[in-house]
Known about the structure:
Layout: E1 2-6, E2 15-23, E3 27-28, H1 30-38, H2 42-48, E4 59-63, E5 70-79, H3 86-101, E6 107-110, H4 122-137, E7 156-160, H5 164-192, H6 200-213, E8 217-222, H7 224-229, H8 233-238, E9 247-254, E10 262-266, E11 268-272, H9 292-307, E12 312-322, E13 334-336, E14 342-344, H10 352-363, E15 370-375, H11 379-385, E16 390-393, H12 397-410, E17 414-416, E18 434-435, H13 443-452, E19 460-464, E20 470-471, E21 477-478, H14 483-493
Parallel strand pairs: 1-7, 2-5, 2-6, 6-7, 10-12, 10-15, 11-12, 14-18, 15-19, 16-17
Antiparallel strand pairs: 2-3, 4-5, 8-9, 9-12, 13-14, 16-19, 20-21
Amino acid sequence: MQFHATxxxxxxxxxDCAIVGIFEKRALSPAAAExxxxxxxxxxxxxxxxxxxxxxxxxxxLRHVAGLNCVRLVLTGLxxxxxxxxxxxxxxxxxxxxxxxxxxxxxxxxxxxxDPADKSEFQRIGRDTLLAAHAAVYRFTEMKSGxxxxxxxxxxxxxxxxxxxxxxxxxxxxxxxxxxxxxxRLSQDLANLPANVCTPSYLATTAKKLARQHRNLxxxxxxxxxxxRLKMGALLSVTRGTQEPAKLVVLxxxxxxxxxxxxxxxxxxxxxxxxxxLKPPQAMDEMKFDMSGAASVLGCMHAxxxxxxxxxxxxxxxxxxxxxxxxxxxxxDIVRSMSGKTIEILxxxxxxxxxxxxxxxxxxxxxxxxxxxxxxxxxxxxxxxGGHLTGLMSPDDQLAADLLAAGERIGDRAWRLPLSEEYHxxxxxxxxxxxxxxxxxxxxxxxxxxxxxxxxxxxxxxxDIAGTAWKSGAQKGSTGRPVPLLVEYLMExxx
Length: 495
């Protein structure tokens, strides 16, 4: 998507669709007031008719308003004026862009960030505008033989601001947003693909393509034989029930000299039937999304490489299928992980932590400054937080605070859960060093506790995205989260 920032007067701007805000009680935003004046009160007359009140999320489409250079005008509710903050601005953008995408507009110009209370916000406004536009126009049509439904035509988005310096800041933010959006698009495309296409080998091929696309990026792909030599017994136990070969994918991005890398580890279960602990059939098709952790770290790497961030970043993707067969791992089996620790597998459907623990052990060889794993790990996290917030666990208060702050800044929020000692009790085993599951209670936390046993001495965080990685129902599909959170965190490290 093309983008630009302009400091021209709103009434003089020519566009297919202009977007302005209306506060509650039908109060005009500064840009809306200018357009109202140019149209000789046309907006005020519409407001007087009561079709829009300014409540947050409301939208109204007007066409061919006399005196304006736009074909369409979208009025967007901003809510209460004294409560209009970055979060509410993002909500207004989302509502407006959704309406714009439903029209035949090829370009749009948003004035929703014309006059923020904090003048340093223009860069954020540019970034958020691009991300909202991406979310509105994204469609996954790769597997359809024909386009049976109309596709959004919007391919250019402009950002109206009051000064040249503000335009420069908004332009910079829009460029950041475009790179983040490209990472989200990759993540969404991978996750939305069916499991018969997006196999472990497909993820490996995607990583190699990324390495060819970007300078300073190198890909390694390890086979099952390689993993056996590395003694990754936990990872290999998961893939025993399938004929699809498992892969360990490692991407190296070198953007700085003499700097310990950040390592991102993404769970890549390309289909999860639960193994011998077979899942119920309801919504099992959505288990193609169980590689969303892998998709998100690959998307993050794509964004980082596009931004040319001056950091060193390593992405590790352990990827395989989890299927039942006569060869599949059985409940009660004991496996030895790469770390040497033994694990009693009480539930084969708790497989994500098994592939992650070997990948986390492998990460040690890079002497990382930070390690963050990303996984659709537990249904318990969905029960705890729903589909709004990502579950965050870390024994390091500073890392947890930094990730939470990054999520707040970019609107990809997380919530910290504890890793207290008492939660480890449920993982005790009479036959191995520990079990792969605890009790039903606190399942997201005990999963995090399991991973923590492989990260001693590392500055580590775990993101459980089981509730945020995709949507079900009529809107079924990948969200691309937490790519924005991860990229924002990494950008902040180099600011």
